Amino acid sequence: MQSETKSKVDQLTSPAGHPVTVLRFEGDIASTSKDAVLGTYQGLPKETAKLILLDFTKVDYINSSGIALVIQLLMEAANSSQKIYAFGLSPHFTKVFTMVGITKYAGLFPSQAEAIAAL
Amino acid sequence: MTAFKTTSVEVRLPSRMGFEKVAMSTAASVAKLMGFREDRIEDLKTAVAEACINAIEHGNRLNEKLSVGVVLSAGADSLEVKVIDDGKGMKNKQAKPDIDRKMHGEEDPRGMGMFLIQALVDEAEWVAGANGKSSYVRLVIRLDKEADPDAEA
Known about the structure:
The structure holds two protein chains of two kinds.
Chain A: E1 6-13, E2 19-29, H1 34-42, E3 51-62, H2 64-79, E4 83-87, H3 91-99, E5 107-109, H4 112-118
Parallel strand pairs in A: 2-3, 3-4, 4-5
Antiparallel strand pairs in A: 1-2
Helix pairs in contact in A: 1-2
Chain B: E1 7-14, H1 20-34, H2 38-59, E2 67-74, E3 78-85, H3 99-103, H4 113-120, E4 123-127, E5 135-142
Antiparallel strand pairs in B: 1-2, 2-3, 3-5, 4-5
Helix pairs in contact in B: 1-2, 2-4
C-alpha cells in the first residue's frame, strides 16, 4: 500500500568548487524506506562524499518513521564528519522538520540552486 | 441563525501500514469541504496519519484481523476525528523529542508520533477503552475564521 521509495545519486560541484553528492528521493518516506534512505546513504564513499544534499522535491508523504530514518542518516553522517543539507521540502514538512529539531543538524533550503549556492 | 447539524463520515481501515493514507485523504477531503486553510489541512493530514499508524502498530499490533475505525465529525466550526483500535490505550502525553539525545543515541530516533499529533491539532486526548478494548485518540481542529481573508467580518 505504501508507495515504494525510489532514490538516486547525482554528483555536482558547488560554485565554490566543492564536490556535492545529491541523494534524490521519490515516493513516500516511511518505515518501508530504510533501504532507499539509509541503504543509499551507506553506499556513498565516506572519504569523498563530505557534502551531501537530500532532495525531497518528489516526496509528498513523510511520516514519523520516515523522519526517524532521516535522523539515523544524520547520526551516521555526524560520525563520519559529513555535512548534510536538504531542499525541496513542502512548507508543511519544513515546519515538521523544524519542530522535531532536524534543522539543528541539517540546513534546509527551498531549492537545489539555493542550496548549492550556499555550499 | 440556523442550527448546524454535525455531519459524520466513517472509515474502517485494515491494520496494515500504509492504509493510514486512506484516512488521511478522507480527513483532508472533509476539511476542505469545511473550508479549512491548506496549511491546517496539511497539519490535520499528518496528525491523522500518525494516529492511525499508532493504532495499527501499537493498538492492533499489526493484526490484520482487527480494523481501525476512523470517525470524522464535522461541526459548525471544528472537525473532530476519533481513531479507534483494540489496544489498551496510550499514555496521554509524550515529551517533546530531544534531537540532541537522539543524535547521541540516548533516545530512540522513533517515537515522535504523539508529539506531532499534539503539536499539530488544537486538541488531542487519548482515552483507554473499557476492558482494554476500543481505545481511541480524539483530535480536534478548529476553523480559524480570523485568518481567512474571505471570512465575513
